[in-house]
Amino acid sequence: MKTITPFFLIWISVLHFGCTTKVVIPNHLKNHIICIDENGKQPVYLDESENESPEQDQIEMVVKGFRSHVFEKNRQPTITLFLHGGLVNLDSAIKGSKNVFNVYGKDKKNQENFYPVFINWNTGIRSSIWAHYLEVRGGVSNSFYALLTLPFIVVADIGRGIAKTPITLFKEFTESPFIPSFSEESQKNDQKRIAGWGHIQDLNPDPDLYENKTHTSILTKMYRALTAPTLFVSIPILETAGPGAYNNMLRRAQVLFQTDEDIKATYFKETGILSELMRELRTIEQDLKNVEVPNDKREEWDDEGRNRDIDIITQLRTLQNSRQSLDPNIRQDKERYQELTKDIQLLSNLLDSSDLTNAPEIPVRLNPKNYSTKRFKSVVKVKIVAHSMGTIVANELLRRNSDMYFSEVSYIGAACTLKDFSDLAIPYLVSNPTTQFYCETLHPSAEVNEWTIPYALGVMPRGSLLEWIDKFLTEPKSKMDYTLGKWQNVSNALPQLHFMERDVRERLNIQCFSLDGSDPLKHGQLNDVPRKEGSKKYWEIYRKPEG
Asked: Which helix (H) or strand (E) element contains residue 441?
């Protein structure tokens, strides 16, 4: 009995840990925040006096607020989803949400046309390590089974950590101890390689800033050399516990859409928080079709809130660009060229039609639901702003909701892989010719010289979270398994995506920040509200309104 009692107490404490997630949401953010725990469920909500709130369903609160924003206040049916990154617990995520919201709460113009929703999910490092050892096995939460197998997991992790440490140390000492400056010559080579692939921004207008004193000085190199011996201690720790913790972060991205219960259930309905939110947005869209848009808002909603299938002129231009990129002398291109010619002619006839509601249907090969013949069709327009691991969630949103209109998709320091972006996001861009995609990366020197854990004082390897993912936390099978949010990765991979037609490439807006003080130098700073005017953050939600 004495041997069973400690085991039983530990088991109870583990179960208790998984059921006591509590968060405090400020009153003015109750209609703008959805918090999700490590198992894809809503936590216990507390009011600002830390008493349990009777309003437990945060999705209901957000949807109620958005309905009021659209139907009662006659504002644009536009919603912006914010998805934060990894290594962020719920309390930190709420603080970040409050910061962004307060900036925009001061501006009346943004209040009119901007309805933010912050998707806060627990990606904290402590809870992820805890889940790896004491909660999750085989991707399913099972605390009892996890505790029984704990000794074997620990032995397996230690064995892997010891075996991989020499390989990782070799990579660390040969690839990144003394990072060369990102020269103007290398920048020109990048530009030549990706010429014609979207709106690739100049890395820096001032060539002198490529030679950065902070990141490449002799003192910095000496410091890295002096702290190099500590890597013999820190890298085995990272290799032991890191991959398991990261896998649990990836699991938490999946349970936002489909929980463990959905896998076992006999019904065909995903109960994940984000799946439920998207269903609610579709309901609002259906209700919008039965509402007469006020005359003073009609033109504004048509310009700002239009669906991807409204602007026939844009569709026509897209087809013309696609046809222009083909060579009619090649047999496969010739067949496609003839198809596009027919479709272009049909759309031209639609523009000449006085009664568009009775116009003929578009051929099946064009996917008719993407081509509307009605004007002033009010629909819910969704914008996505995803940072780091939030881009993994964003990819799933695009894949699972191809019928929704995402007007802008912004990936900031993306932790998703190049392959996932190619397989999940690109198809959405192909079928939605008005969606704009933005990708923002740190300068390569800033990427490799960051301290992911600042208070480690040089004990941990240098490099951003993306560097850690590529080096320690995952095992890439090819270059396409590297992260999208690093300039070297995305600039090298874009030319390989040769299947993309010209119109898709023209909607890829990619920018690598400089080493100037006005630009972010750390992975986490990419998610901050700009501190200085003139910062190169050019997302619409961050732009200061003109005038």
From this structure: strand 436-441
